[in-house]
Structure formats: structure tokens, C-alpha cells
Design goal:
One of its GO terms (molecular function) is G protein-coupled receptor activity. 73% of the residues lie in helices and 4% in strands. The chain is mainly α. It has a single domain, classed as Rhodopsin 7-helix transmembrane proteins (Rhopdopsin 7-helix transmembrane proteins), CATH 1.20.1070.
């Protein structure tokens, strides 16, 4: 008899194999990832505590930074526990619905992070290009509405991804060649027509990441034009310095995001290279963000130094 293809109808369990091709060493790979996760968790918790407890940091830029830190914490919590369980304990099985839930939270937090970066550059644009109206435009109510819009946009657009996956019934495999439930990795399991899933995945990527990147780029062109029109060199350097931390975070987020996105869909890189890069893309920005802002933002840097050397606050 000839061999028959095996298919799975409405699978209840899927299997994540971690990093294909590196299964024999992924136990050790888990340790640097754990280090990155710990840096991300401690750094962002530290950042949140500083911003929430220091009243003079209750300004738009720092409020957005606090939301970014909370988003990074959510991203780490969504991906790290299961990934490390796969690497260290061989806990590869996962309920299909739990996989879709993880998929939703990972991609939703990605979309929220992109939106918050756009909100932060909007804050810098107003502060530099229209400083006299900064406080009147970025009121507390406006900030709340902005954060809610970012969150709702991400949750609604990403929320359709698991719904479209849930409608699929026939799968050619239940083995996901990844360390977490990523949208395209799950789509590739299907034995049905997945053109809608692929097309909508592309739409979400460009509607969130593409849209945000274009407007961040345009905003920085306008910001640089305003900065270079300043008459004094010191004023130009001071204005530019307020943007350096955000530029660094913006570049590391979007470069890693688009490399991971396009390599998965159109590239011909080895599976383990793509999975390593996509995992780095998810975990490294949350770890780097508090470090970058802690170093480049004077107010946060001073507060961190005070805490680290146990110097009590002194009122002048």
C-alpha cells in the first residue's frame, strides 16, 4: 500500500518544538534568554516605580514611557514562561486555544508597543515644533484617549487573527516549528485554503507597523527641520538630545520587526536563524528600552543614581 497523508480535524493540542535544528543545545540557549527576560522585567518594573512615585515625572513623555514599560512587561510574561519550559523541561504540548491566546497577546502587545512609540514621537513633535501649546494639547484626558486608541486598535486588529485561525478545521500537522505561537507558524499548519489568513496578517502588519513607521518618519523630518532652524547651536543640541533615546528605541524596534516579518514570509533563511531572530526581536527591545531611557533621560538617570548609591532625596 502507498503511504497516506495524515491530517488532523479540529486539533485540541499542538506541539511547540522550540528552535528546530538546535534542540540539542536549546537547554543552554535558555540561559541567555532568561538573563534578557530578567533584565526586561526588573528594568521595566524599576522604571514604572520611578515614574509612578516621582510627581515631577508625571508628564506626557514619562506617562507614555510608563505605558511602554507596562507593554514590555506584558510581552515578556506572554512569551518567556512557555518558551523556557520548552527549553528546560521539554514541556512542548499546548492546548490549541491556549496557543491562540498566546498568539493574541504577543501580537497585541507588539501592536501596542508600536503605537506607543508613535505617541511618544508625537509628544516630541509638539514639544519641539509647538512648545507653547504643549501642555494645552497634551492634556491628561488627551493622553488617556491616545493610550486607549492605541490599545483598542491593536486588540481589535489582532483579535481577528485567532478568530480566522479558529475557523480552520483541517490541519496537516500539529507540530509548530517555533518557540512560541506565532501567527504565520500556526497558519502553515493548515491543510485548507489560508489566503484570507495570509492576506489579513499582511494587512495587520502594515496597518500597525507600516502606518506607525511612516508617521514616525514624517514626524522626525518635521522635528529635524524645526531643530535646524534654531539660531543657537546649544539650543539645537539640547532639542536633538531630547529625541536620541526615542530614536534609538525606534530603530531597534522597527529594524528587528521588519527583518523578522519579511524573512518569515519571503526570505530563505534557515528556520533556526529566523526563530532566534524573532525571539530576540520580542525579548531584546523590552530589555533595552529601560536601559536606553535610563541612560539618556536625565531625570530618570539622576533618580536611578540616587537609588543605587542610597542617597536620600534632598530638597533645595
Amino acid at each position: 500500500m502507498g503511504s497516506t497523508n495524515i491530517s488532523y480535524l479540529n486539533p485540541q493540542i499542538v506541539t511547540l518544538i522550540g528552535i528546530p535544528g538546535l534542540e540539542h543545545v536549546q537547554f543552554w540557549i535558555g540561559f541567555p534568554f532568561l538573563g534578557v527576560c530578567l533584565v526586561a522585567l526588573l528594568g521595566n518594573i524599576f522604571l514604572l516605580i520611578i515614574i509612578l512615585t516621582e510627581r515631577h515625572l508625571h508628564q506626557p513623555m514619562y506617562i507614555f514611557l510608563a505605558v511602554l514599560a507596562a507593554t514590555d512587561l506584558g510581552l515578556c510574561v506572554a512569551i518567556a514562561p512557555k518558551m523556557l519550559a520548552i527549553f528546560w523541561f521539554g514541556s512542548c504540548s499546548m492546548a490549541f486555544d491556549a496557543c491562540l491566546t498566546q498568539l493574541f497577546f504577543i501580537h497585541a502587545f507588539q501592536g501596542m508597543e508600536s503605537g506607543i512609540l508613535l505617541a511618544m514621537v508625537f509628544d516630541r513633535y509638539i514639544a519641539i515644533c509647538n512648545p507653547l501649546r504643549h501642555t494645552s494639547i497634551l492634556t491628561p484626558l488627551f493622553l488617556v484617549r491616545m493610550v486607549l486608541m492605541v490599545a483598542i486598535r491593536a486588540m481589535v486588529l489582532v483579535g481577528i487573527l485567532p478568530i480566522l485561525l479558529k475557523r480552520l478545521q483541517l490541519f496537516q500537522s500539529v507540530i509548530i516549528f517555533h518557540s512560541y505561537c506565532e501567527h504565520m507558524a500556526v497558519v502553515k499548519l493548515a491543510a485548507e485554503d489560508v489566503h484570507i489568513n495570509r492576506s489579513y496578517g499582511l494587512f495587520v502588519a502594515f496597518a500597525i507597523l507600516g502606518f506607525d513607521m511612516i508617521f514616525v518618519f514624517i514626524s522626525y523630518i518635521l522635528i529635524f527641520q524645526a531643530v535646524f532652524r534654531l539660531p543657537q547651536k546649544e539650543a539645537r543640541l539640547k532639542a536633538f538630545n531630547t529625541c536620541t533615546a526615542h530614536i534609538a528605541v525606534f530603530l531597534e524596534f522597527y529594524i528587528l520587526a521588519f527583518f523578522s516579518f519579511f524573512s518569515h514570509r519571503f526570505g530563505h533563511v534557515s528556520p533556526y536563524v529566523h526563530i532566534l531572530l524573532s525571539t530576540i526581536y520580542l525579548l531584546v527591545p523590552p530589555a533595552l528600552n529601560p536601559i536606553i531611557y535610563g541612560v539618556k533621560t536625565k531625570e530618570i538617570h539622576m533618580r536611578v543614581v540616587q537609588i543605587c548609591i542610597l542617597k536620600p532625596d534632598t530638597k533645595q
